[in-house]
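debug: dumping io for the single-chain case to check the tokenizer round-trip. Nothing else runs in this session.
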Amino acid sequence: MEIRHVTRGRAEDGNNTSRTLVSSDSPWEPLVGYSRAVRVGAHVYVAGTTGLGADGELVGVGDPYLQTVQALDNVGAALLAAGAELRHVVRTRIFVTNIEDWREVGKAHAERFGEIRPACTMVEVARLISADMLVEIEADAVVEV
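debug: decoded output
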């Protein structure tokens, strides 16, 4: 995933909390009207992220482990653009199209978060935005201040 745009500004309610919006090359962001990540103060929220590679193509078609690895790389890139790192993640949500893939998905998650140990939820969903996508991951982070 390539970060295309970072916008910083003040919160609309006039308080001193700044708001940072991170956009990627996802074709869905402008269509749906969302950001890849949003940072408000010390909190960073990463939207549902899949295994799209830098070329915009899905990595690991048919392979939940490889898709999870790429999705987590994409989450990491969004966090960095927002001034955070994987070590700041406090919660992940993993959506899989086949709960039987939990071991491969969990293995990739543990490779990145084994020492960090964020709260984590994994649920099966009927499908994702593309039939070839097997995994989508959200993450919340809190940056130490």
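debug: round-trip ok. Residues 64-81 form the longest helix (18 residues).
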